[in-house]
Design brief:
Number of strands: 5
Strand order of the largest sheet: 1-2-3
CATH topology of the largest domain: Rossmann fold
Order of helices and strands: EHEHHEHHHHEHEHHHHH
Bound molecules: adenosine-5'-tetraphosphate
Number of helices: 13
CATH superfamily of the largest domain: HUPs
Radius of gyration: 20 Å
CATH class of the largest domain: Alpha Beta
Largest sheet: 3 strands, parallel
Shape: globular
CATH architecture of the largest domain: 3-Layer(aba) Sandwich
Structural class: mainly alpha
Length: 329
């Protein structure tokens, strides 16, 4: 049986949040099954679309790799690599840029959001970021791309680019599909539950970092913004309450009906403590493994070097095929 290929990545722009974990990383771990072959990357080239400090980027890239292993990525089974170590991504990106319309890029909501957030640095990389992301995906022949809701539009663009390229130059790329979790495809900020939780939020109370101490996690949940309704329910417009219930379900495996029944008659105090405890139970073991890998520099280097070698071999095959298809070879 032919294995399904999976590709996903995360930008090393900070410590991942609970949103990154529930929306993507946890899915990455679960997808490592016998009928699939997964490539996972630390997307350092994507991190350059906002102003960066070189020393910080190097450190964050390294800790992100350690954290991915701690979250359950098995590098012996799934190549784990740093995006910039596989030069073929940037090369394919040029080819795909020539198959992408500006009208399509103009529609990307993340570009609009990030342009507002970084209005003093609306660079061309931020605009063409989805093309590089399409290259990341198509270069491995990925069938499935596990992402959170905010990246769905980019995977759909990658699909359109693949279809257009195949129609113009002959079958070259696999057409990928986004895969999102049942619960938590968009975890919202704790202080602003109408916007997604983000690792570059300027207010640290707005997000749970995967490396927050248990006491900090408890404190942040206790401060989470909710509403004045007397009951706990999952309902239209109750953003804060819905978010807490979603996180609770994602971390306990309970259904929404079970969660709502459990908190019937209870107040927000009880819900917030229960959510915090469920999150702490989920991420405490991850923190312990993370520390072990951060202490073993040589092992981490060995892992990402081997990952880049494995990924590079596969990437080169697709790049050659695409170059031939357009008439460059
Ligand atoms: N709030 C979220 N809920 C669910 N999934 C999320 N993801 C991000 N935020 C949430 C998913 O995490 C994966 C990695 O994302 P990324 O770091 O590459 O970029 P991002 O989507 O821009 O995430 P951040 O945390 O908001 O980063 P910054 O602040 O640097 O822009 C993706 O699959 C994403 O969908």
């Amino acid at each position: 049986m032919e294995k399904k290929i999976i590709l996903s990545g995360i930008k090393p722009t900070g410590i991942p949040t609970l949103g990154n974990y529930i929306g993507a990383l946890r899915n990455w771990r679960q997808m490592q099954e016998d009928d699939k072959y997964c490539y996972y990357m630390v997307a350092d080239l994507h991190a350059l679309t906002v102003r960066n400090d070189p020393k910080e980027l190097r450190e964050q890239t390294r800790s992100m790799a350690a954290l991915l292993i701690a979250c359950g990525i098995d590098p012996e089974r799934s190549p784990l690599f740093i995006q910039s170590h596989v030069h073929q991504h940037a090369e394919l990106s040029w080819l795909l840029g020539c198959t992408t319309y500006m009208g399509e890029l103009n529609r990307m909501t993340q570009f609009k959001d990030k342009s507002q957030k970084h209005s003093d640095n609306i660079n061309a990389g931020l605009y063409t970021y989805p093309v590089l992301m399409a290259a990341d995906i198509l270069i491995y022949g990925a069938h499935m791309v596990p992402v959170g809701d905010d990246q769905k539009q980019h995977v759909e663009l990658a699909r359109n680019i693949a279809i257009r390229f195949n129609n113009a130059f002959g079958e070259t790329f696999v057409v990928p599909e986004p895969v999102m979790p049942k619960f938590g495809a968009r975890i919202m900020g704790l202080q602003d539950p109408e916007h997604k939780m983000s690792k570059t939020d300027t207010n640290p109370n707005g997000y749970i970092s995967m490396l927050d101490e248990p006491a900090v996690i408890m404190k942040k949940f206790k401060k989470a913004v909710t509403d004045c309704e007397p009951t706990i329910a999952y309902a239209e417009g109750r953003h804060g309450c819905n978010n807490l219930l979603t996180i609770y379900c994602a971390c306990t495996g309970k259904t929404m009906a079970e969660a709502v029944a459990e908190f019937e008659g209870a107040g927000y105090g009880k819900l917030k403590v229960a959510v915090a405890e469920a999150v702490i139970a989920e991420i405490e073991p991850i923190q312990a493994t993370f520390k072990r890998y951060m202490d073993d520099e040589a092992e981490l280097d060995r892992i990402v070097k081997k990952g880049a070698q494995q990924a590079g071999e596969r990437a080169q095959l697709t790049l050659d095929k695409a170059y031939r298809a357009v008439g460059l070879r």
